[in-house]
Specification:
The chain is an alpha+beta fold. Among the domains are: about 1-85 and about 105-180, no CATH class; about 275-355, no CATH class. The protein is built from 16 helices and 10 strands. It has helices at about 1-20, 35-45, 50-55, 65, 90-95, 110-130, 145-150, 200, 220-225, 235-240, 250, 280, 285-290, 300-315, 320-330, 335-350; strands spanning about 25-30, 75-80, 100, 135, 155, 165, 170-180, 210, 215, 240-245. α14 (about 300-315) runs parallel beside α16 (about 335-350). The protein is globular and about 70 Å long. It starts with a helix and ends in a 7-residue tail after the last helix. Its cofactor is [4Fe-4S] cluster; cob(II)alamin. Pathway: tRNA modification; tRNA-queuosine biosynthesis.
C-alpha cells in the first residue's frame, strides 16, 4: 500500500509541474559518484578555463546533499526554448553580414523565467504536501544539471556533453528543485548516440576533444560569453559571425529533428535579434545595449565584450565599405580590448589580397 501511495505522489508532482508549463518533469536521487570523478578529471585538465567558480566549488557540485543539507531527492525539469518564428539558424550562419546569436538567448533571460516557474512549482508542492525544505536552481549555482537530469531519465549525456532526449533533442533549459522529500526515483535511459560523431565534426574550433569531453577554452560559447579577455587569435576566424554562443553541435545532431518549439511567450524573439546585421549591432551605444537587453541573458556580458565579439565577426565578413566604415568608427574606442579586436579585423580586410579597396 505504501508503494502505491508513493507512486501516486510522484505522478501528481509531475502533473503539477506540467500544469505550470514545464515540458517534462522527472525525479533523481542524490548519488553522483561517477559524475564526481568525471568532474574532478575535467577540472584537473583545466578545461573549465576562466570559470573559476567551478573549481572553487569542486566536488561539492556533485554532492546535492552537501550543497543543500537535508536534500533527499531532486526534481528535474525541462523547458523548450526554440522561438517559433526565428529565422532559420543555417540561413543566418550562411550570411556573413548577419549576426548569429544562440537561439536560447533571443528572448527573455531564462534564469528569471525558470526560477519563477520553479518557485511557483515549489509553492504548489508545499500547498499540496505540507511544509518541507527545498531550494530552487537554474544554472545559477554549482549544480550538475545534465548529470541530475540524466539520472532522472530526462535523457542521456550526448557526445557534445549536453542532455539529449529521443523526444525533444537538446534545445531546452534545465532546472532543479532540491527537496527534503524521499521520492521514488525515475530510471535513467540508455545512450542513443551510437556511432554518430556529427556534433564532434561540426564544432568550428574542435572544442569537443573526444566523445563526451569538452575543452571549454576552445568553445565559442565560452569565448563569447564567459571569457573576459582577448579572444585567442587562433579561434577568431572559426567564430565566423557567431557573436553570442554557438549552436553548431546541436544543429548537427540528428536527434534535434524532434526538438519542439517553445510554448512560453517569454522565449519569443526580441528586438529582431534573429535577423540583424552586424554593422547595426556594432553601432549600439552603451545606453542602447543596456536598454535593449533589459531582461535578457545577453546583458551580463556587458557592452565591451559585445563589441569585442562583433568586431571579430566583422573581421570574418566579406569586405565592404559599410563593414570597413563600421570598424573604423571604433578604431579609437575607449576600450583597449575593443581596439585590439577592431585592429585585427581591419588588418584582415586591408590586406591587398582581400581586395577591400
Amino acid at each position: 500500500m505504501e508503494t502505491q501511495v508513493a507512486t501516486r505522489i510522484e505522478d501528481r508532482i509531475k502533473q503539477w509541474g506540467r500544469e505550470l508549463g514545464f515540458d517534462a518533469v522527472a525525479i533523481a536521487g542524490t548519488n553522483l559518484e561517477a559524475e564526481e570523478a568525471r568532474l574532478l578529471d575535467w577540472l584537473g585538465r583545466g578545461w573549465h578555463g576562466g570559470m573559476d567558480y567551478m573549481a572553487r566549488h569542486g566536488a561539492r557540485r556533485a554532492r546535492p546533499a552537501e550543497l543543500v543539507p537535508g536534500t533527499l531527492s531532486v526534481i528535474s525539469v525541462r523547458l523548450n526554448y526554440t522561438p517559433p518564428a526565428a529565422r532559420d539558424s543555417a540561413d543566418v550562419l550562411d550570411d556573413p553580414e548577419s549576426a548569429f546569436i544562440s537561439r536560447y538567448a533571443l528572448g527573455r533571460d531564462y534564469h528569471k523565467v525558470i526560477r519563477n516557474k520553479l518557485q511557483a512549482f515549489a509553492d504548489r508542492l508545499v500547498h499540496e504536501l505540507g511544509s518541507f525544505h527545498y531550494r530552487v536552481f537554474t544554472d545559477s549555482a554549482p549544480v550538475m544539471e545534465v548529470a541530475l537530469a540524466a539520472r532522472a531519465g530526462l535523457g542521456w549525456r550526448g557526445k557534445h556533453t549536453l542532455l539529449l532526449s529521443r523526444e525533444a533533442g537538446s534545445l531546452y533549459f534545465l532546472g532543479e528543485l532540491f527537496v527534503s522529500l524521499d521520492l521514488e526515483r525515475d530510471a535513467p535511459v540508455g545512450d542513443h548516440c551510437g556511432t554518430c560523431t556529427r556534433c564532434i565534426e561540426a564544432c568550428p574550433t574542435n572544442a569537443i576533444v573526444a566523445p563526451y569531453q569538452l575543452d571549454a577554452r576552445r568553445c565559442i560559447s565560452y569565448l563569447t560569453i564567459e571569457h573576459a579577455g582577448a579572444i585567442p587569435e587562433e579561434f577568431r576566424p572559426a567564430m565566423g559571425n557567431r557573436i553570442y554562443g554557438c549552436d553548431d553541435c546541436q544543429l548537427a545532431c540528428p536527434w534535434n529533428k524532434y526538438a519542439e518549439l517553445a510554448a512560453s511567450p517569454d522565449f519569443a524573439v526580441r528586438h529582431g535579434l534573429d535577423d540583424e546585421r552586424l554593422v547595426n549591432l556594432f553601432a549600439w551605444t552603451q545606453d542602447q545595449f543596456d536598454t535593449r537587453f533589459e531582461g535578457s541573458a545577453i546583458r551580463r556580458i556587458g557592452h565591451e565584450r559585445w563589441l569585442r565579439n562583433i568586431a571579430v565577426a566583422l573581421g570574418n565578413a566579406s569586405p565592404s565599405r559599410g563593414i570597413l566604415a563600421a570598424l573604423r568608427s571604433r578604431r579609437d574606442d575607449p576600450s583597449a580590448l575593443v581596439r585590439e579586436h577592431v585592429a585585427w579585423a581591419l588588418a584582415r580586410h586591408e590586406q591587398p589580397s582581400n581586395g577591400a579597396h
